[in-house]
Amino acid sequence: MRLELLERRGDPASPVHQAPALGKLLLTLLFIGVVVSSPSRNPILPAAALLTITLVAAVARISPGHLIRKLVSVEPFVVSVALLSLLQPGGVAIFLSMVIKSSLSVLAMILLVSTTRFGDLLRALRRLRLPGIMVMTLALMHRYIAVLGDETERMRRARASRTLVRGRRRAWSDLAAVAARLFIRSSERAERIYHAMCARGWRT
Known about the structure:
Helix content is 75%, strand content 0%. By secondary structure, it is mainly alpha-helical.
């Protein structure tokens, strides 16, 4: 399985790709901070932010389709969190503001990881004095998320080959069973990896 979410895209020789990872990370965080703290009723700043992302993506030669596909894969989580705002007065306006700001922030992060090697990002986080355990956790996540993806695909195929009855209800039942089994296998794998690391001298 290829880790497509964290793969670099576009032209590796572009100025955006060649820029230092630490600088890109700081600019991305600054961009997100400005977007999040901007007044909700000001439509100019979100439009300017979207234009900025579009221009940077064009310089890096990253297609809009790539950004949209990755945004759509994350958008359900964004919307599900923003839905809570509908429970308070003026919830619709707050909901729309949260969705727009969160989507712009996600687009900025997608653009960052699409133009920067993950190892360079980890080194940039270390230079920013991020706690070592957090950097280590991100590194392990990057290493093993593809392994879990392969495991999920194998379990799904095995389950499908043993399923004779088709239907929406059955599909949801199979998905729940695969998710539960994957959680158990992931926990077991994490325990084995932890003991193997401790045996090699790693300490928290």
